[in-house]
């Protein structure tokens, strides 16, 4: 049953490197709506487990920490800041080490359950743009606008390679391509919230498309469905 009294939600799901972050932030700016970076909640849970000495494979303890995550999201002079227990963890959250731990805690059903209501609380007027893997399937199944972004494994590896090179890292394109292909297989086959598009999602392939064009296509969907 559609909950029409609730503010509208645009869900943007897809694998890593498909361009979700760039597209979501641009859509948030264009609409002036709220933003949910659900991956950051899984990363925060991983970091909190690490700090509290809880194994990222201990479902019950990790879920207990996820349920009381002392996290806050701030916008300071246009820059996003994430706080955990009052300290700024924005840079740490993006590290490869935390990304790897996050993918383990994200596979735990109790953790996903513990974060469910917290994610839904981001739905505030005038609207929400939610970025993740299961935004359109599990968290906001009744969202009026659902987007599923994809790009080829090679293109996603190239984007990640350029980003890491830009940060001064010593990486190989071939091994990144293999890692991304392997992560795709894991994400699509895991039993808990596998990465799959909602049946009513609009698929946009970003491989050879400029970011500005993808953003315009998402905004066109919003106009079509919500005006
Ligand atoms: O998008 P990201 O790299 O920040 O996500 C971090 C991890 O959390 C990644 O392993 C995918 C997982 N994740 C998830 O399972 N469900 C979401 N809605 C968002 C992220």
What can you tell me about this protein's structure?
This protein has 227 residues and is an alpha/beta fold. It has one domain (3-222): P-loop containing nucleotide triphosphate hydrolases (Rossmann fold), CATH 3.40.50.300. The chain contains ten helices and eight strands. The chain has helices spanning 20-31, 38-52, 59-67, 90-93, 96-105, 109-120, 135-139, 153-166, 173-189, 211-226, and strands spanning 9-13, 34-37, 71-76, 79-84, 87-88, 128-132, 145-150, 202-205. The strands form two sheets. The chain has a five-stranded parallel β-sheet. A three-stranded antiparallel β-sheet has the order 3-4-5. A hairpin with a 2-residue loop joins strand 4 (79-84) and strand 5 (87-88). The structure holds 2'-deoxycytidine-5'-monophosphate. 2'-deoxycytidine-5'-monophosphate binds next to helix 2 and helix 5.
Distance between the termini: 20 Å
Radius of gyration: 17 Å
CATH hierarchy class name: Alpha Beta
Unreliable runs, pLDDT <50, ≥5 residues?
Answer: none
In the sheet with the most strands, the strands line up as 2-6-1-7-8
Oligomer: single chain
> How many helix segments?
10
CATH superfamily: P-loop containing nucleotide triphosphate hydrolases
CATH topology term: Rossmann fold
Percent of sequence in beta strands = 15-25%
- Which cofactors or ions or other ligands sit in this model? 2'-deoxycytidine-5'-monophosphate
Order of helix and strand elements from N to C terminus: EHEHHEEEHHHEHEHHEH
Number of domains: 1
> Percentage of helical residues?
40-55%
Q: Please provide the count of β strands.
A: 8
